[in-house]
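Comment on this:
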Amino acid sequence: MRQVVITKHGSFDVLKLQEREDPRPEAGQVLVRVKASGINFADILARKGLYPDAPKPPCVIGYEVSGVIEAVGEGVDSSLIGRSVIALTRFGGYSDRVVLPASQFFEKPESLSFEEAAAISVNYLTAYQLLVVMGSLKKDESVLIHNAGGGVGLAALDIAQHIGAVTYGTASPSKHDFLLKRGLDHPIDYRTRDWTQALRQLTDGKGVDLIIDPIGGSHWKRSYKMLRATGRLGMFGISSAAESRWGGRFRLLRIVLGAPWYHPLALIRRNRGVFGVYLSNLWGEGERVRGWMQALLNGVQEGWVRPHVDKAFSFEQAPEAHRYLEERKNIGKVVLVP
């Protein structure tokens, strides 16, 4: 099989395409021939050595794939062979074949291409946990989506519109037209103006009910200040680590030192809530995650889940794909295709 391997921590050129022995499914497992692999910002951090759960290099990352079941292990129904599926992988997704437990795949909706199907799992599950499960977003409430043009951002926009919430989103100006056509109520240019001032003006100084923030560090302080009474802040990433000029672990240290401390008494006094989302630590909650995923797949059939793939790169172009995502050129999902 062919795999994109992180040979060592570093820049884009540490990603190398290598040949390895084909895997075989054991009891309770299936072998999926991969048609598309999703790329996430966590992959950028893993390549740089800033993602604590990633295996040490040389390693193969990737949390989500779509493809066709090619073989099954003992105890798995052989009629599944040939079935088109969406699958969650705990690393190893940058491969043209992956082996995974039979509990970690879902039937691919016929309406989705394989590239679109690879854009569902991580982005939409993260957004669903942020907005529905923990954010408790309700109709006519308001939500600010940071990085609204990214993969999680577009997924959150789909979900928020389905709920009936008022949507605000930070994004570079070049993405505003797309986001307006997609249904965003209020795009905010964070590059040339202070987004907090813009949000105050748009909300008459009240702030919003929910903010989802993947940036990290001191940026969480600013987001917290923009919550109205009963507002919630959902934190789910540290993308600023990839942008820091500091090297290695000093990047993470800088973010930790800049992050706010939320004292319980202050939360009580201000009627605010703060929570974190880390999909990687939910492997022990399989039934719960399957329920969320089924709700999203129902959303595909109903038409409100609309995965958008910005660009597909070949395995040979993996370094270019990482650069494209890291430089935030994408609107929506970036995928690899074997």
